[in-house]
Amino acid sequence: MKIKDAQFLKSVFAASAFPNLPYPEFAFMGRSNVGKSSLINMLTGKKDLVKTGSRPGVTKSVNFFIINGGITFADLPGFGYAKLPESVREGFLPLIKSYIRDRDRLRLMFMLVDIRRVPGDFEREMITLLTERRVPVAVVATKCDKLARGGRAASARAIANALSVGEDSVFFSSSKTNLGRREMLSLIEEFCGNRGLD
Ligand SMILES: Nc1nc2c(ncn2[C@@H]2O[C@H](COP(=O)(O)OP(=O)(O)OP(=O)(O)O)[C@@H](O)[C@H]2O)c(=O)[nH]1
Ligand SMILES: [Mg+2]
Fold first, then answer.
1. Ligand 1, closest atom to CA 175?
2. CATH classification for the domain delimited by 6-192, as one of 1.10.760.10, 3.40.50.2000, 3.40.50.300, 3.40.850.10
3. Confidence grade of residue 51 (pLDDT, cut at 50, 70, 90)
4. How far is the CA of 154 from the centre of ligand 1 (A)?
């Protein structure tokens, strides 16, 4: 699919303010600084649609976007950056959990993991919650430009093992080189059915 239009809708700090939208929804979650906001910019082809940053904790709310007038994207706040105090580190967890619990039109969750790291309890806990809600999960290995091409397969295997998913279900991505863009857009199209494509 082609993204012809991407508009920021709203920033939400409390579950009570989640918007009621009729569109198929896709969300992006993962640890702080993993590259969620950059990935949304990359997918939409709009460099400055979402604010990104070198310091973790840039996204402090759930940010909703409307794609092609008929698809919702949600950028979730990051979680668990080790260098931040625990109160900050875990502060967004209730909002993230409410998001997973409440969004009935959520078709697919993109779970982002840095290609250079092995995911841990946070990612596993989130995948458990998503599985309970019957929300499919696509694992995205981010920042692939930072790793030599030859090292990617072994890293993807380690990520897949840690999350108990098939190795083939890990997408390689780079917001710097657009790696993975086409595959992820195809997946979104597939999970949309016929809605929101034109
Ligand atoms: N080399 C490289 N850097 C990236 C990539 N994606 C993101 N970054 C950088 O990583 C940093 C964090 O990116 P963000 O997109 O803000 O990460 P985030 O997951 O939204 O972070 P929070 O909102 O803090 O949770 C920024 O400095 C980005 O430029 C990538 O694919 N390759
Ligand atoms: Mg962000």
1. 31
2. 3.40.50.300
3. confident
4. 22
